[in-house]
Specification:
- The chain is mostly helical and 149 residues long.
- It is built from two helices and no strands.
- Helix 1 packs antiparallel against helix 2.
- It is rod-shaped, with a radius of gyration of 35 Å.
- The model has no long low-confidence stretch (mean pLDDT 92).
């Protein structure tokens, strides 16, 4: 009777697979956070352009200095927010890179165990074939001895 193949490191392989899935989710969260920071920076740029557009005067329109000063103050605030946003973007990009590296490492670890399992299963099948062939040879020899006796 053929013995079933049992991979002793199967619990470890399952753990590595779960760690790989978690690393994928972490990368997804990091990419989403980076997208949100980029969207925030784009909205700041849109606001900045809207201020410049609102400063344009139609022909014959008088300049309102209070409105101009308020726009300048808001531009300073926007610039500060943009600088903070660029710092957040740098951090988010670093997190994406780290998450990508962690996923690569987790995938490599999982794949190593998958390949080991495949090699061991193949080795087991070869050994099983060899055992069966030896048993068949032994049966053939016994039959031959019975027939010749």
């Amino acid at each position: 009777m053929a013995a079933r193949f049992h991979f002793r490191l199967e619990p470890v392989r399952k753990l590595r697979e779960a760690l790989e899935r978690e690393a994928e989710r972490a990368l997804s969260r990091a990419i989403q956070a980076e997208r949100e920071v980029r969207a925030y920076l784009e909205s700041l740029e849109t606001q900045r352009l809207a201020i410049f557009e609102s400063r344009r005067l139609a022909v014959g329109q008088q300049l309102d200095l209070e409105l101009w000063r308020a726009g300048e103050r808001f531009l300073v605030v926007l610039e500060r927010r943009q600088l903070e946003g660029y710092e957040r973007l740098r951090q988010a990009s670093a997190q994406v890179a780290a998450a990508r590296e962690a996923l690569t490492h987790a995938h490599r670890d999982h794949l190593m165990l998958v390949r080991l399992k495949e090699r061991r299963a193949l080795q087991h099948a070869r050994e099983q074939q060899l055992r069966e062939a030896l048993e068949m040879d032994e049966l053939a020899v016994l039959r031959h001895h019975r027939q010749s006796a």
